[in-house]
Amino acid sequence: MTLHPPRVPGHPILGNLTSYRKNPLTFGRHVAARYGDVVDLRVFNRRIFFLAHPEFVHQVLVRDADKFHKSPVYRIFLGRALGEGLLTSDGDFWRRQRKLAQPAFHHGRIQSYAQTMVDYADATASRWEGLETLLINKEMAQLTLEVVCRTLFSTDIRAQADRIGFALAELLEAITEATSGAVFLPEWLPTRLNRRIRRGVAELDSVIMPLIQERRRSGEDTGDLLSILMLAQDEDGHGMSDKQVRDEAVTIVLAGHETTANALTWAWVLLAQHPEAEAKLHAELDAVLGGELPTLAHLRDLSYTDLIIKETLRLYPPIPEFARQALQDVQLGEYVLPKGTIVLVPVFAMHHDPRWFGEPDAFRPERFAKDAGEALPKLAYLPFGGGPRVCIGNSFAQMEAVLLLATLAQRYRLSVEPGQTITPEATLTLRPKDDLTVRLHAR
Ligand code: HEM
Among 12, 189, 357, 417, which is most buried by a count of CB atoms within 10 Å? Predict the structure, then answer.
């Protein structure tokens, strides 16, 4: 006899779509708490298995990783902007691309990016001088965009930052809107959304393609990601086309700046709301840095700063959920996951599971300290995903977030301007729904 996981009651046609869309974050937590670790959701007549137990998530992402592909939603929607980049491709093609891009993210190389990260954060701190208030989400987006472009493409995009930033924001918004649409409209239809996505892509390409063409012309090997991608060849001596380099470049710019920017924005919010944690951070920065800019050598001693980032990524995981599709029937505990089923990994709900995180809503950076004694099951905490498709920028992002926060918090304290409601909005990423104004206080 085949066992079926519990089903969440929903609309006869729409299934659970409406309640999910109203607030994916609370919906996920509610489903996990009320229905358990494996739950059957429906969107129209499509089955979605919601997996909220680390053991099952480990099976899907690690043990049986080759029995799953990315969810088609990635390919259909993100693919319109990112083409066949690392985030959206699958199978042998993905494996080859991942191998080619990996050297740019090796430990030693990432360490060499530290100085650039601090330089840009320091320039931002200087630009803030004399300002009273600013939009922190915008500032963090600009800063992380500058960092990713400089470190991986050796390009100072400050001149074009507005154009790229605008195009990326437009694209994300349009793709998010398209993803949440009840009806899937083909790409060739001249709808408002389709036009908006096309405009965003064209704008982005008008900045990225000349960078690629220029590098192709000069043949220069600067050792950055762009060179690595452009000079890479497979066993048959084939390199990547300009289009493929473009897809990887755009993927990394998008995946690598929006996520880290959101993490930092939430870290500022949490620090403003928790003065005792903020005071501890300042004490660490003063003791370790003594007024100097942070360097790679300081990282080891910035342990509380690191805990703040880890706890921020738990409370506000920049990718609040992600999905896979089963390529074959898979036995999952007592259930069979039928071929073609979508599997939803609810990162946000899992990060708030009281079985693994005591007082799950509390901001307690110390819980991640080595001596805290909270032994977590594997993948109970997964801001960067897991298994072969774990975030390629994982160490890059963790180091970047610590260095940028340390550099800026050394000089400024931020408070949230009163009268604003801070609502987390889960779309493809988790960010504050509205722009967030903060007041700057020089330290
Ligand atoms: C705090 C910051 C970040 C978070 C929370 C984050 C999170 C994630 C997650 C959860 C995935 C896996 C999605 C899945 O399995 O479906 C992923 C993949 C990816 N991330 Fe990140 N990321 C961050 C920063 C970065 C940075 C800085 C870069 C590049 C510079 C980057 C590039 C990528 C790429 C290329 C992939 C696809 C990898 C593959 O499938 O081979 N990310 N990220």
Answer: 357
DSSP state of 342: E
Residue 326 has pLDDT above 60, yes or no: yes
Q: Beta strand pairing status for 437-442 and 412-416?
A: antiparallel
Predicted confidence band of residue 163 (pLDDT cuts 50, 70, 90): confident
* Residues of the chain above pLDDT 70, percent: 96
Choice from 259, 345, 350, 396 to test ligand 1 binding pocket (greatest atom count within 8 A of CB): 259
- Residue 32 belongs to a domain: yes
Alpha helices (H) along 36-133: 54-58, 72-73, 79-82, 91-101, 107-112, 114-127
Ligand 1 mutation pick, 74, 95, 253, 391, max ligand atoms within 8 A of CB: 391
C-beta of 42 in contact with ligand 1 (< 6 A):
no
d(CA 9, CA 12): 9
Please state the rounded mean pLDDT for residues 281-297: 97
DSSP for 215-258 reads: HHHH----SSHHHHHHH---TTS----HHHHHHHHHHHHHHHHH
CA distances (Å), origin 151, targets 80, 116, 124, 397: 25, 7, 16, 12
Residue pair 407/118 in contact by the 8 Å Cβ criterion: yes
Q: How confident is the model at residue 277 (pLDDT cuts 50, 70, 90)?
A: very high
Whether 57 is covered by a domain: the verdict is: yes
Tell me the average pLDDT of the chain.
Answer: 90
DSSP annotation of 360: T
pTM of the model: 0.94
Tell which phi-psi region holds residue 288, choosing left (phi > 0), alpha (psi between -120 and 50) or beta: alpha
d(CA 43, CA 344): 12
Contact 306, 12 (CB under 8 A): no
DSSP lists the bridge partners of residue 331 as 336
H or E stretch including 209?
helix 192-218
CA of 247 to the centre of ligand 1 (A): 15
Establish if 12 belongs to a structural domain. yes
Q: Is residue 425 part of a domain?
A: no
CATH code for position 339: 3.30.43.20
**Residue 285 structure tokens:** 């920065």
Q: Is 397's C-beta closer than 6 angstroms to any atom of ligand 1?
A: yes
Nearest Cα to Cα of residue 428 among 64, 167, 74: 74
Domain count, the chain: 1
Q: Is the CB of 137 under 6 A from ligand 1?
A: no
Q: Give helix 91-101 / helix 242-273 axis angle, nearest 10°.
A: 70
> What six digits make up the tokens of 14?
């729409």
Q: Which domain holds residue 348?
A: 1-82+320-357
